[in-house]
Design goal:
The complex is a heterodimer of chains A (221) and B (175). Chain A has 221 residues and is of the alpha+beta class. In chain A, 35% of the residues lie in helices and 27% in strands. Classes of the chains: A alpha+beta (221), B mainly alpha (175).
């Protein structure tokens, strides 16, 4: 490699590493835009160095990060918020729409800051992450699926279990989209959430019939 | 292959694919953000990374020969460094720059796959100061100037130290 080729390549490395000062970086950015060969050299260096990042040991992020992402990418229909209960009756699609309402109300700028979060890992694969916030005399839960696997022709249903009480059906969950459900306010430490697999449309008579595939308790944030 | 397919579906607006992508990669990308930022900011940037990917997954081009995880790690690193630089600008760029990153990384964290091992081996073959400076720049958004100041070296010496290191590093990786 000749001296100038080497200089060219080192410059690409310096740029990829961010070693240049602001002025220098701006000049090199122009070069990169104008010269395909140089752009390729920069990308080659990024490729060479990125194993430093890819090789880091994984760290599981807290559940509320995904809850915020799920809420932010949900389809936006803010006006439906007022009739959340009504729309819930129409099932999953409507509930997915309703989550957008929560997204709009709760996070106009800032990411969601839920009060508590529960992760319900499913024996059938994937998990639901539920975040809870108090809204007056009720709690609003946003339940987001992550890689959830549920048998076809069945409906996953969410249950509230309080000590000494029969399980209370909170609503159907979706496989791919976040769902909003409300529950009566309770001491969050007493609450257990469970997911059961029910016939399409949900458990008849409000009583769980199918297997419980996941459950979990809330931790406070 | 799985990740590439996921990214394709994300580019088409598939929210399930985004959830799957998050499940498969968030541990890695969170580690990248945490290496560069404090915990709260790292969480914030991680969220931002996936929202960026949600909007821009179409920019991923497998034909360019970059693996999906490398591409995603690059997005995470760039976002985290942007945040770091923005923070420094607010704090005043001229204040003492933290050079704690110049210490070699714990090698144990880098033993996960062949490419990382190879890179780590090649970096270990360099002048320790050059290797430390290259890593510090990669994760810490450090310029020649801040590295020279931090190591109490003349700017020119820091430049030639790192340039020699980069040339040797490339030769080692290609050998």
């Amino acid at each position: 490699m000749s001296g100038s080729d080497e200089d060219f390549d080192v410059l690409a490395a310096e740029y990829a590493l961010g070693l240049l000062d602001e002025q220098g970086a701006a000049r090199v950015a122009e070069l990169r835009a104008a010269d395909k060969k140089f752009d390729a050299a920069v990308r080659a260096w990024e490729g060479r160095l990125m194993p430093l990042a890819v090789g880091l040991e994984e760290v599981a992020p807290p559940a509320h990060v995904w809850a915020g992402i799920a809420a932010a990418v949900a389809p936006a229909r803010p006006r439906l918020w007022d009739s959340l209960k009504f729309w819930r009756g129409f099932g999953l699609g409507a509930a997915a729409v309703a989550v957008a309402a929560v997204a709009m109300v709760v996070m106009p700028r800032a990411p969601v800051a839920p009060a508590a979060v529960a992760a319900l890992e499913l024996s059938s694969g994937g998990e639901y992450v539920a975040t809870a916030e108090r809204a007056g005399s009720e709690m609003v839960l946003v339940v987001s699926p992550a890689g959830v696997s549920v048998p076809a022709q069945k409906s996953p249903e969410l249950w509230l279990i309080l000590p000494g009480q029969a399980p209370l059906a909170l609503g159907l969950l979706a496989r791919a989209a976040p769902v909003v459900v409300k529950m009566p306010a309770a001491d969050i430490a007493d609450v257990t959430l469970a997911v059961s697999i029910e016939p399409l449309g949900g458990a008849p008579d409000g009583k769980a019939t199918g297997p419980v595939v996941g459950s979990g308790k809330f931790s406070l944030l | 292959m799985v990740l590439a397919a996921c990214l394709n579906r994300v580019a088409a607006g598939d929210r399930t694919a985004l959830a799957e992508l998050y499940r498969l990669t968030s541990g890695k990308l969170f580690a990248v953000c945490l290496r560069i930022l404090g915990r709260a900011e790292a969480e914030d940037v991680l969220q931002d990374v996936y929202l960026t990917v949600w909007k821009k997954a179409g920019l991923f081009d497998p034909a360019r020969g970059v693996s999906p995880i490398t591409w995603l790690a690059a997005v995470a690193r760039n976002r985290a460094l942007d945040r770091l630089r923005a923070g420094r600008r607010f704090a005043g760029m001229d204040e003492a720059l933290d050079i704690a990153d110049l210490a070699p990384l714990a090698d144990a964290a880098l033993e996960t796959d062949e490419m990382s091992r190879r890179l780590e081996n090649c970096l270990a073959g360099l002048d320790a100061r050059a290797a430390g400076a290259i890593k510090a720049a990669f994760f810490g958004g450090q310029t020649y100037e801040s590295l020279a100041k931090g190591a109490d070296m003349p700017l020119g010496s820091m430049k030639s130290l790192i340039r020699r290191g980069l040339i040797r590093l490339k030769a080692c990786l290609e050998s």
